[in-house]
């Protein structure tokens, strides 16, 4: 049977836990919108200057005339 390891000191446990935080998502401004690095731009469908997605043209919303 295995034997439990040595008890971690309070400072060692806190030092280990200090590195378990979540990182913020890095964003780049490209093509008039925000994009994550190494991802296809959702606004234009380009990646590293090449067109990789065919985007459908957006439909214009009809304006409602109020009386």
Could you give a short description of this structure?
The protein is of the alpha+beta class and 67 residues long.
Radius of gyration: 25 Å
Low-confidence stretches at least 5 residues in length (pLDDT < 50)? none
Q: In percent terms, what proportion of residues is strand?
A: 5-15%
Order of secondary-structure elements: HEEEE
Mean pLDDT: 84
Task: Report strand order across the widest sheet.
Answer: 1-2
Structure classification: alpha+beta
Structure notes:
The chain has a domain at 24-53. Helix content is 13%, strand content 15%. It contains one helix and four strands. Strand 3 and strand 4 form a beta hairpin. This is Large ribosomal subunit protein bL32. It comes from Candidatus Buchananbacteria bacterium RIFCSPHIGHO2_02_FULL_56_16. Residues 1-18, 51-67 have a biased composition (Basic residues). GO terms for molecular function: structural constituent of ribosome.
Keywords for this structure?
single chain, alpha+beta, two-stranded antiparallel ribbon, 4 strands, ribosomal protein, structural constituent of ribosome
List the helices and strands and how they pair.
Elements: H1 10-18, E1 28-30, E2 33-35, E3 46-47, E4 50-51
Antiparallel strand pairs: 1-2, 3-4
